[in-house]
Specification:
Length: 459
């Protein structure tokens, strides 16, 4: 009996050893491109987020130098980005925590099986001896090996403490978007925009001023006008390289009425089709001939699909949603007519990858976020927004709607100014504005009676 007993102990030790596994670590922002973090005192720190502890985050700078930054010392936009990075890291750590109910080998159940099978074997041995079964007696050692193997198979094939069969959820693997695919979509709009990437995101930097005219055609005007925005460095637009399907897509009818939900390939953000009052911006006349207008920060953005970008980009995407999925125009990527769309306003293409489509009808771009997104915890629905999010920098206080006004012309004046022409009835009025190298903005408002008021703001 010594040989089978030794064998059993070896099997127990072997299984206990091989069932263990090492955990992993997530590293954010590997590479030579560094995020720029701006402190409230104006100091800029270059480094990629690594981890946080208490009210501090730690970034890795050049040559592996670790720098501690207090969250409260960051500018508001960078503080929100840091909070997003912390949340993402915590989410990934939770994702890779080992689960006892899903382990390959249940050691406790193994011991229980050993005890019960040993009792059964003792009874079996007595029966064999009583019946004088010579075949089993001559091959006792091989018989016990088979017995130990049965124990091992049973212990490894079933685990967990609950009764019944546990069905694991089906995980759909989405291929990581290549940076060359992103670059091909944005290439036609460079150097007006610039792009970069790290291990997690593809970043788009722009001035927020498109490659086409603006504002003409608006009949419901909020009196905002477009100025350049600092969408660069740590405040660039961020598209995840690895999209993940959401368990429940987030509807844009009741969410995301603040901030962008996508970024067009010309560097202009795309907002929800509904404004912050829940109205269709296009139907109520708030949008220009290109589907855009300006927000309270004098920031130009689209609310409708920028379908006109297909004339430049052809069959390439016209935008990317902030969940990582591409947005195409009226045609499929292979040139065929657009297939029917789901409630998210997209579908899985012939490549097996999901994408959205822009259309001329509501919801225009995204009906619901097909991919997982992180929401700003400080903003409840419906005026919640996705993080990370680039933020605007206004030059003047926000203005009020001007009843009856419609914009008839918009033209550049020199290299640092614009002239907007609007009418109320048959009478014409103007907004002329410009800025200098020190970011001093001058607005000259001329009403329908010819009265002009000039105001200067330091940005």
């Amino acid at each position: 009996m010594k040989k089978p007993i030794i064998f059993l102990f070896v099997v127990i030790l072997l299984v206990k050893t091989t069932s263990a596994h090492e955990g992993g670590h997530y590293h954010s922002g590997d590479g030579t491109i560094f995020n720029s973090w701006t402190l409230k005192n104006g100091q800029q720190i270059l480094g990629n987020f690594m981890y946080s502890k208490g009210n501090q985050m730690f970034v890795e700078a050049n040559e592996g130098k670790m720098i501690a930054i207090k969250m409260n010392d960051l500018m508001p936009a960078d503080k929100k980005l840091a909070a997003f990075k912390v949340a993402q890291l915590e989410k990934m750590n939770q994702q890779y925590e080992p689960s006892a109910s899903s382990s390959f080998f249940n050691f406790e159940k193994f011991i229980s099986l050993v005890i019960w099978f040993t009792i059964a074997l003792a009874l079996l041995s007595s029966v064999v001896k009583y019946l004088n079964i010579e075949l089993v007696k001559r091959n006792k050692f091989q018989f016990l090996i088979g017995y130990a193997s049965v124990i091992l198979i049973v212990a490894c094939s079933k685990s967990g403490t609950s009764a019944g069969t546990v069905t694991q959820p089906t995980i759909v693997s989405i291929p990581k978007t290549t940076t060359t695919f992103f670059d091909s979509a944005f290439a036609s709009f460079k150097p007006a925009i610039s792009t970069r990437y790290d291990a997690t995101y593809f970043y788009i930097a722009s001035t927020g001023i498109p490659n086409h005219n603006m504002m003409i055609g608006i009949t419901n005007w909020q009196q905002q006008v477009p100025i350049s925005q600092p969408y660069a460095d740590a405040n660039s637009w961020s598209i995840p390289l690895q999209p993940v399907y959401a368990t429940t897509p987030l509807s844009t009818k009741t969410n995301l009425m603040k901030g962008a939900i996508a970024v067009a390939v010309n560097g202009i953000p795309i907002f929800n089709a509904l404004n912050n009052r829940g109205e269709d911006s296009y139907l109520i006349g708030e949008l220009d001939n290109w589907g855009g207008h300006c927000g309270k920060g004098d920031d130009y953005h689209y609310h409708a699909a920028p379908m006109h970008l297909s004339t430049i980009n052809g069959l390439k995407p016209i935008a990317f949603a902030l969940d990582g999925f591409a947005v195409y125009g009226a045609k499929e990527p292979d040139g065929t007519n657009m297939a029917s769309l789901d409630t998210c306003h997209g579908h899985v293409g012939t490549s097996g990858v999901y994408h959205y489509h822009g259309t001329k009808d509501y919801p225009y771009v995204v009906g619901a976020m097909k991919g997982k997104v992180t929401l700003d915890p400080s903003m409840p629905a419906p005026e919640n927004q996705i993080l990370p999010q680039a933020f605007t920098k206004p030059a003047r206080p926000s203005t009020n709607p001007l009843k009856g006004a419609y914009i008839t012309d918009f033209a550049a004046v020199g290299s640092n100014g614009y002239l907007l022409t609007y009418k109320i009835g048959t009478k014409t009025a103007y907004v002329k504005y410009s800025w200098d190298a020190s970011n001093k903005y001058t607005y000259i408002l001329t009403d329908t009676l010819g009265n002009a008021v000039s105001t200067t703001y330091q940005r």
